[in-house]
Every structure is written in structure tokens, then in C-alpha cells.
Specification:
alpha+beta, Rossmann fold, Dna Ligase, domain 1, D-amino Acid Aminotransferase, Chain A, domain 1, 3 domains, six-stranded antiparallel sheet, 10 helices
């Protein structure tokens, strides 16, 4: 099978903020995915997403499938850019469609759907400027983050606030730097969990991964901040959480956590793959923080492969399963009677 691997490669640019390219993939990750596909017998072209080049490539080269990990480049719906182009050209691709990707990137919109579906998620308020009044129903501590970013961008030790003064200072910082709304939500104290869902003919919920930040308290970043993700494993910086997969949960609670993730996956309309981040409270309520339909696939550090390994999968099997799921969906669509 001829596969085009669409991606955004990380770049170095000192004129940009340190977290500017955090969502993009390293050359090592892109090479690992391409290598896994080739091991399974597929031919692969890697295409770094530059719009004129991408469209030109797709028009000039016949491909059977696009393996899409591109985060996009511009605007509120950037993760939908590549899928929208592929839909227009009628080229099949892995992962969720443009609607689901646009929705999941907007944390506030996603949370509204979760609440409508009775899926627990922290209470929240969206701020477009720092002069808006805080909802009296919200309870401190609160966490402040950009509404339309991933990879912990805009989140640091000062993001968890305990008073209005710090809250509005952080809102102003987010709206000024990221030029978008600030999401303010109640900070849920509890176990940090993440759940991977893989579709390959049937829905497979991977073993739950628990991230224990107990030994990170000295850093002040006892949650997934940008530094925690960027420098994960650095004991010197206090950024070395412990991982447990499967998570330390009894069967009943594990089932409840997995059900919340699956319901979120379906509510947002994801295909093939997703990773849902959850905080489990002391009373065992799984609060969904967000869902990522484009989870990282770094074979050494990303959470999704770690969960796949715990399920007994090899990296090349995981990558091929994502590809085969997309092929199965395409086959069903083609074979449907007109």
C-alpha cells in the first residue's frame, strides 16, 4: 500500500516562544512511524505540511491512504486543515475527521458536549478578556489554560490559582500571549489518568495509564504542564513522574474510568484513535479534562504507545492497526449501496 505520512516537523526558532512548536512531531517520531509502516510492507512518503507543497504532492502522486499526524498551522481549526483538504480531494486518511478535530481542539466546546452527555467534567468559564466577572458558582483552586492549545502549552506552576488577583493576572497573560480565550476550570485534585482507545474492526480500550506526580511536588508542577511534558524524566528539575500501566485501580473503578473515556470518544465523534485525560477524585468520580484525537506517537515517551505496550502490542502493530482501521472504514463506505 502507498502511504503518505502527513506531519508538522518540529523546528528551532529562537524568535518564537519556547512552547511554540510543542505540538509538532520530532524527526525521530516521524521516522519511527514511517519505519513501522515499512516493516508492515507499505511504501511511505513523508510530507511536512506546507499547504502548496501538500496539495501539489497529493495531486501529482497517487496514494492509497494518508497517515495523518499533522497538527496544522493556522487559525482556530488548524487540526482540521489536512483532513479538510483530503476530504475535498476524496483521499482516505487515518484518524478523526475535520469536525471532530476542530471540536476537540476547542476545550470549552468539548466540555459543553460532555456536560450535555452527562459525562463528568470540571465546572468552567471561558474568558475572552480579563475584565469579565468570575462565575460565583466556581470554587477555588482554579486552573487557567489557553482554550485552543495542546501539549501543555500555556500551562505552568502559576496556572493553578487560589485567589482572584492571581486568576485575573493569569487570564491576562493567556489572552495576551496566545491571542485566544482563557479557559478557567475548577482544579480537580486526584489521580491523573489517561485512557487510549484504538479501533481496528472493534473498539479496544487500552490499559489505563496512571501518572503519579507525588515526587514532583518540589517543582510546583504536580500536573501535566508544558515543562512536565517537554522535560519529562528530569529528576534534577523535579519533573520525573512515575507511571503505572495498568493503573492502580480496582476493577469496578477501572470500568468506570474506561466507560467515561469511551463515551467521550463517541460524543466527540472520533475515529481510529483517541486519548482521554481524566482526573479521578477521592470519591472515585472520573472527571474528563479533555480528549486528544491526535495523541503523540513517540515510541519511547508518548503515553499512547506506553498503553499499547502494556496491552502486549509492538510499536509496528499499533501503527498498522491505526492504518487498518482507516482502511476498514473506507471499505465500508465504498461498499455501501448507492
Amino acid at each position: 500500500m502507498k502511504v503518505a505520512l502527513t506531519c508538522n516537523l518540529k523546528k528551532k526558532d529562537d524568535s518564537k516562544p519556547p512552547d511554540f512548536f510543542s505540538e509538532f512531531d520530532s524527526p525521530e517520531t516521524v521516522d519511527a512511524i514511517a519505519g513501522a509502516l515499512r516493516v508492515k510492507g507499505h511504501s511511505v512518503d513523508t510530507v511536512d505540511v506546507d499547504h502548496p507543497r501538500l496539495i501539489s504532492y497529493l495531486k501529482q502522486n497517487r496514494v492509497d491512504m494518508v497517515f495523518n499526524i499533522a497538527e496544522g498551522k493556522f487559525g482556530k481549526f488548524r487540526e482540521s486543515e489536512v483532513p479538510a483538504i483530503l476530504d475535498h480531494l476524496n483521499i482516505p486518511y487515518t484518524g478523526s475527521g475535520s469536525f471532530s478535530l476542530a471540536l476537540a481542539l476547542n476545550k470549552a466546546f468539548t466540555k459543553k458536549i460532555l456536560k450535555a452527555e452527562n459525562i463528568p467534567t470540571p465546572n468552567f468559564q471561558l474568558f475572552s478578556k480579563d475584565s469579565e466577572e468570575l462565575d460565583r458558582e466556581l470554587r477555588f483552586p482554579l486552573i487557567v489554560k489557553p482554550n485552543r492549545e495542546g501539549s501543555g502549552k500555556g500551562i505552568d506552576r502559576s496556572s493553578v490559582v487560589f485567589a482572584k488577583t492571581d486568576l485575573y493576572k493569569k487570564i491576562q497573560e493567556i489572552t495576551n500571549i496566545y491571542r485566544q480565550e482563557a479557559l478557567v476550570e475548577e482544579f480537580i485534585d486526584g489521580k491523573e489518568l489517561t485512557v487510549g482507545i484504538l479501533e481496528n474492526g472493534k473498539v479496544v480500550i487500552l490499559p489505563v495509564l496512571e501518572i503519579d506526580f507525588s515526587n514532583c511536588r518540589n517543582s510546583g508542577e504536580f500536573f501535566y504542564s508544558w515543562r512536565m511534558k517537554e522535560f519529562q524524566g528530569s529528576a534534577a528539575l523535579g519533573l520525573a513522574p512515575e507511571f503505572y500501566c495498568p493503573a492502580r485501580l480496582d476493577k469496578e473503578i477501572e470500568t468506570r474510568v474506561k466507560d467515561a473515556a469511551l463515551r467521550t470518544h463517541r460524543a466527540v465523534g472520533c475515529f481510529d484513535i483517541s486519548r482521554t485525560d481524566i482526573r479521578l477524585t477521592a470519591d472515585n468520580t472520573p472527571y474528563v479534562l479533555e480528549i486528544n484525537p491526535l495523541p503523540g506517537l513517540d515510541p519511547k515517551e508518548s503515553n499512547f504507545p506506553l498503553m499499547a505496550y502494556a496491552a502486549g502490542m509492538k510499536y509496528e502493530d499499533l501503527i498498522n492497526a491505526i492504518l487498518m482501521s482507516a482502511m476498514e472504514r473506507r471499505k465500508v463506505r465504498v461498499e455501501q449501496p448507492k
